[in-house]
Write a structure and sequence with these properties.
Layout (H helix, E strand, L loop, with lengths): L4 H7 L9 E5 L11 H7 L4 E6 L23 E4 L12 H4 L4 E5 L10 H11 L6 E5 L11 E4 L14 E3 L4 H11 L5 E5 L27 H10 L19 E4 L4 H10 L5 E8 L11 E8 L7 H15 L18 H6 L3 H7 L4 H18 L10
Parallel strand pairs: 1-2, 1-4, 2-3, 4-5, 5-8
Antiparallel strand pairs: 6-7, 9-11, 10-11
Helix pairs in contact: 4-5, 6-8
Length: about 400
Amino acid sequence: MIQTGLERLLAKPDIIKNRSVALIANQTSVTADMKYSWDELNRLGIRVRRLFSPEHGLFGTEQDQVPAPTVSGICSEVVSLYGGSCDSLVPLDSHLSDVNCVLFDIQDIGARYYTYISTMVMFMKALQGKDIEFIVLDRPNPVGGVIVEGPVLKKGYESFVGSLPVPVRHGLTPGELAMLAHDYFGLDTNLKVIEMNGWRREMVYDDTGLPWVPPSPNIPSLNTAFVYPGICLLEGTNISEGRGTTTPFEAVGAPGINPARAADELNALGMPGVYFRPIYMRPTFNKYCGETIGAVFIHVTERRLFRSFLAGVAVVLRMSEMMEDFRFTTGAYEFNEIHPAFDLLTGSSGIREMILGRKDLEWIASSWEKEQKVFAGIMEEFLLYREH
């Protein structure tokens, strides 16, 4: 079993003893024996003055894009950093006036648009020029630290689902992303990363020996985490990403989809490490609530070969051709009203325009190959774990 940054801090807590501590956390902030970080810090005599919770709330009770409420009955005051407006995404000065150390301990998912990293980056920016140390308690990238996939976020497309110029599947840990953000934005923030012991880049979460805690309501399993970096793209379309089913992001479909045809066409693309099985599904909330719709189930057969972003683009491309009323959604998405949601997720308008222009999958995939190779070189500067 590896040691997370939290475990290492709890083993040697002197660096925060007699300090006024705040903690950014959620239900994933646990020890290897499933004890919450705030309880363990309190047990060691370290007073956590304030808990900050990200999207979905302290215990992951809220669905996506739903304001997260405060929680009572915890050892500290709880402040939501996802309260339903842009203003509520960052701490107030009054939240920081009585602390001199902020800990970040949340399990990321390894995809650029997962919002916990944006919360981390925005909090780091809020600490600029303040005499407050920001300590990242590092945790694994659950889908591994080797594969880098997808386009890099372009200037002008920054949002709460894209705060750093990294590929969609970035291959970095929260600590490494914090170092990248510190350098990229030139932050005047006192940053420290407490590294893991024993984590290697080729590891996926199952290899770590750590217990899996669902990081948000629609990422129930590690299988979901592997498909998410690609299938989340469906949030920017009228294809259901499976929210409202028991297997979100693994079961995807829409009215008018012929499951057998969709599965056959997707399997014919020959993408490695994945098999598409024809199904029907009936979401209980979100898109097509109560309707029985044609769909496919995404089986990841070999995690180290599977390219999730490529699979997500393939699903949108093929299903858009089968639907009579396919459309990319418009309107506000994660506090941004300037660009369509799909463009915010992919990082530019390029892939959407290629799909509308009926370019084939190989053509579309070639558009991000150079970017991911360039980034793979850039990321070397920020790697904390270099065994691979």
